[in-house]
Design a protein that fits this description.
Elements lengths: L2 H17 L4 H16 L9 H5 L5 H14 L3 H8 L3 H6 L7 H10 L5 H9 L11 H15 L5 E2 H18 L5 E4 H4 L4 E2 L1 E6 L3 H10 L3 E4 L4 E4 L5 E6 L5 H8 L3 H8 L13 H7 L14 H8 L13 E5 L10 H10 L4 E7 L11 H18 L3 E9 L10 H4 L4 E5 L8 H12 L6 E2 L17 H11 L2 E5 L12 H6 L4 E4 L11 H10 L13 H13 L3
Parallel strand pairs: 4-7, 8-9, 9-10, 10-11, 11-12, 12-13, 13-14
Antiparallel strand pairs: 1-3, 2-4, 5-6, 6-7
Helix pairs in contact: 1-2, 1-5, 1-7, 8-9, 17-18, 20-21
């Protein structure tokens, strides 16, 4: 075992002990040992026990621990600390700019336990309110986190998007006569993507030299050419000909269950030569099914009988629901957010700053609510006919109540109820809090229902049948939080919401003007469930939204 491997164990032990608030003298002794090992030029594995103990900065007690590492490969004390430390905290120690002191604040005060949660907190501007963090520090940490996550092997749809655009552009420029189709998970608009499928009419002789020039590592697999670039993301190239490219793309862009059901349709043959997908569907007597919806076999039965309803499009979003300003943790002022929304063609903005329990996000105390509403009234006169609706993202407390008294909740046009704290819950506890919020007569929208962060936090467990039944009974819309790290509610439950006639609300949860663009990712994921514009609250016109607000207010005592 090399000196640096032993040194790394003592360095990690010292940091973990610091995070757990252990005796500073012990921490210092392990740090000194790590420093001594780092400066040592001779292999410590070749030394005797007495020689090791005589090294300045090590001594007899540390020498015994070094012997343990040499004999067993690891330090049992270190294993104990690793076991009682969340894996995400260990990941944070790999991030440039994050030492034990900052990690203590992140873990103990912000209740963040994963890299993804921390990145989301940076994007929400939450770190700058804490000691040791400023705007510049937060920005540096965010950049380090993004770099780290880009090398983890699985990516958000949003993260793959720019790569796809670059590849398509390069292929078109270098091989103008070839046909190339981005297929697979990306074509199906999946929320996370492990690898990218590209179907191409290029031959291996044409493609391989070009990939080598781009510094891709190439490996030939049974059915495709696998390439990995500097970002460690795999691209699978499926080489085919002009006659079979449509069928190859179709197979790759269906779920296995969908493809099996398709191949069992009456009249299916091995003749897989199709000019385009429209011809493929027509020959099977099935109305066209959009790529994003080729998931479950039952949609094939529906498409045999009639056209699939046109799913929502990003152009159907008429207003921005769920946004934050500098009144809480947003990056832009209320006027800047509203003016930008108006300039971008939206009819209204529902400003939903954080409530008082979200102290980490500068949540609104009651006296500040009155001041914000006064500003909204003035801006509505200035920006008419554009409308800013008074809203709040009210925290759902541990007992399922909202964190303002009724007279304060009554001052809002829209109340979005969300859970932000104590996220580690049993299903029973989570359901109690969620149902409590839904049945509150002041709740208009249930925000990011599970609290999940894709690739970072699973979210608390819920019985969605009961949640949606409660939403239907109490006329509460359910949010599809469009932030690409959330996309919560999961698209797999949206059809159930449609069946229950529960409105879905595609909301960007924008903490800056740029966040408005996230509506697109909510729309892409909603398309997978076949959500139409009529079933989406943020597709309501201004007149329809005014009616919705009036109805919500009529529910109140």
């Amino acid at each position: 075992m090399h000196n640096h491997e032993i040194e790394a164990q003592f360095t990690l032990l010292a940091k973990l002990m610091d995070i757990h608030g252990e005796n500073p003298f012990k921490i210092k002794s392990y740090s000194n040992a790590a420093f001594a090992l780092d400066k040592l030029t001779e292999p410590i594995a070749d030394m005797s026990s007495s020689q090791i103990a005589s090294i300045r900065g090590i001594g007899e007690a540390i020498g015994i621990k070094i012997q343990e590492i040499l004999e067993k490969g690891e330090l049992s004390l270190l294993r104990e600390y690793i076991t009682k430390t969340p894996p995400g905290i260990l990941d944070m120690l790999k991030i440039k700019g994050l030492g034990p002191k900052k990690i203590i604040t992140i873990w103990k005060e912000l209740e963040i336990e994963s890299i993804g949660e921390l990145l989301y907190a940076c994007e929400e501007n939450r770190l700058i309110n804490y000691k040791g963090f400023g705007e510049k520090t937060q920005k540096n940490i965010q950049e380090s986190l993004e770099f780290f996550l880009q090398h983890q092997g699985c990516y958000l749809y949003q993260q793959v998007e720019n790569l796809v655009f670059a590849i398509q552009k390069n292929l078109a420029e270098n091989f103008p006569n070839a046909q190339n189709i981005v297929s697979g998970f990306y074509a199906r608009q999946m929320e996370t993507i492990e690898f990218l499928d590209i179907v191409t009419t290029l031959s291996s002789k044409e493609l391989t030299p070009w990939l080598s020039e781009k510094s891709f590592k190439t490996e030939k697999k049974e059915n495709y050419l696998s390439t990995i670039g500097d970002d460690n993301f795999e691209i699978r190239w499926h080489l085919t000909n002009q006659e079979q490219i449509t069928w190859t793309h179709f197979c790759l862009s269906c779920s296995p269950e969908f493809l099996t059901a398709w191949q069992q349709l009456p009249g299916f043959t091995d003749n897989i030569n199709f000019a385009n997908e429209q011809e493929l569907f027509e020959k099977m007597g099935v109305h066209f099914i959009p790529l994003a919806q080729r998931e479950y076999p039952d949609i094939i039965l529906k498409a045999q009988k009639k056209n699939i309803p046109t799913p929502i499009h990003v152009n159907n979003i008429k207003g921005i629901i769920h946004s934050h300003s500098t009144w809480s943790d947003g990056m832009h002022t209320l006027e800047q957010m509203a003016t930008a929304a108006k300039d971008q063609g939206y009819e209204y903005l529902i400003i939903s700053d954080h409530s008082k329990s979200a102290f980490y996000a500068n949540g609104l105390q009651i006296d500040r609510i009155r001041a914000q509403h006064k500003e909204i009234d003035a801006l509505n006169k200035k920006l008419a006919p554009f409308v800013i609706f008074k809203s709040i993202e009210s925290d759902i407390l541990n007992d399922g109540s909202l964190d303002y008294p009724e007279d304060v909740l009554a001052s809002f046009d829209i109340v979005i109820a969300s859970i932000h704290s104590n996220l580690k819950m049993s299903e029973e506890k989570a359901m109690m809090r969620i149902i409590g919020a839904i049945t509150n007569p002041y709740t208009s929208i249930l925000g990011h229902p599970t609290g999940r962060l894709l690739l970072s936090r699973k979210g608390y467990p819920l019985d969605f049948d009961l949640v949606l039944e409660a939403c239907a009974e109490h006329n509460v819309a359910i949010e599809l939080n469009a932030h690409p790290r959330r996309l919560d509610i999961d698209w797999r439950y949206i059809q159930k919401a449609i069946d229950q006639e529960v409105l879905v609300s595609i909301n960007p949860d924008a903490h800056a003007i740029e966040g408005f663009e996230d509506c697109k990712y909510g729309v892409l994921i909603a398309q997978k469930a076949g959500l139409t514009a009529a079933q989406n609250l943020s597709s309501f016109s201004l007149a329809e939204m005014i009616e919705f607000v009036e109805y919500q207010q009529s529910k109140r005592p």
